[in-house]
Amino acid sequence: MRTLARMPKERIAGPSLDWAMAALSVAFVAGLFLDGWAHTHGKVDQSFFTPWHAVLYSGFALNFLSLLGVAGLNRSRGYSWSEALPEGYGLSLLGMSLWLLGGPGDLVWHTLFGIEEDINALYSPTHLLLATGLVLAASGPWRAMWTRPGSTSALVVQLPMLLSLAASLSALTFFVQFAHPVTNRWGFGYAPVPGVYQALGVTGFILINALVVGALLISMRRWRLGAGAFTLVLGLNAFAMGFLDDSYPLAWVTIYLLAGALLDGLYRWLNPEPGQVGSMRLFAVLASSLLMALYFALGRLILPFNWSPHMVGGMVFIAGVVGFFLSLLMFPPTLPTERDGR
Asked: Measured between alpha carbons, how far is 264 from 261 in angstroms, rounded to an integer?
């Protein structure tokens, strides 16, 4: 009897928590889209305190307080702080903690610089910090179900994971909404986007960066690349593309040769091996961001450039995000059966 009395009560975890947090994640992301709708339909002014922000930040508060409550209850039931949140939800709490910085920071930013307009609103530093936190928060049920042993193809069982995936994906596509074929049908001659050149530039940067880094990562998974490999690949590709255009081709090829040399140095410094997933992910993020940063830094010496610091910083950040997701595809997280040795 004494032994039973000392046993901790059942921990709050499992499918019931996944369902609750998936529903809260959908509500959180719905607040983001409601605020976005208000911006695109002229429903906001220069004030931070709007009904749309109220809905968005209420979604944050519900998610944040719910996870804090789960952690507190599990702690009171005898579990350690490391066990207070089920596996997968620690990053969700971290993501929502970023809102404690990004929310007040966004208020200060709006107060100092006003309400950003058009594409610039997607790439201000505080908005990107909030975006990172939102994706980490919304993806909690997906991570939790990934780490749990066992699998099923029953849709009703997978629903929390799928709702979490849809919410996380929607939060990501929100920040490239101008390029999404649902909202901008460029292929059909319809592009109601203010700053269309910025939108096309962002789309091209993301697409080509993903192709370049993806090709490099899949090769790195198989081979230990020799000295100068990145300079060779990027240089030859830039030369081939420059052959098609007579507008300063040598200057643009030089940028990519320098970028290749920079990636060669990064590769030697990090020394990533296929079995070292952490270093591979770090290389993917840094390589993508450095490619973008170098293009902007040197490209403006060739052609006039009028992008705001928000856009430049945002694109470097988004490039790193693309690199991270590519690394997840090339080096996916360990499955529970692999981790347990079964």
From this structure: 5
CA distance 262 to 265: 5
CA-to-CA distance for 109 and 309, rounded, in angstroms? 14
Residue 1 scores a pLDDT above 50: no
Please say whether the dihedral angle defined by the alpha carbons of residues 123, 253, 328 and 267, taken in this order, is positive or negative: negative
The first and second tokens of residue 318, run together, are: 């988004």
Find tokens 């305190």 and name the residue.
49
The alpha carbon of 126 is separated from its chain's Cα centroid by a whole number of angstroms, namely 14
Rounded distance, CA 18 to CA 151, Å?
15
288 membership: H or E segment, kind and range: helix 277-299
User: What tokens were used for 30?
Assistant: 């719905």
- Asked whether the beta carbons of 119 and 61 are under 8 A apart, the reply is no
| Tokens coding 19 | 């369902």
Q: Per the structure block, which two tokens stand in for 204?
A: 């091209």
Highest mean pLDDT of the ranges 207-216, 308-317, 331-340: 207-216
Query: Can you tell me the distance from the alpha carbon of 144 to that of 174, in angstroms, rounded to the nearest whole number?
Result: 24
DSSP state of 1: -
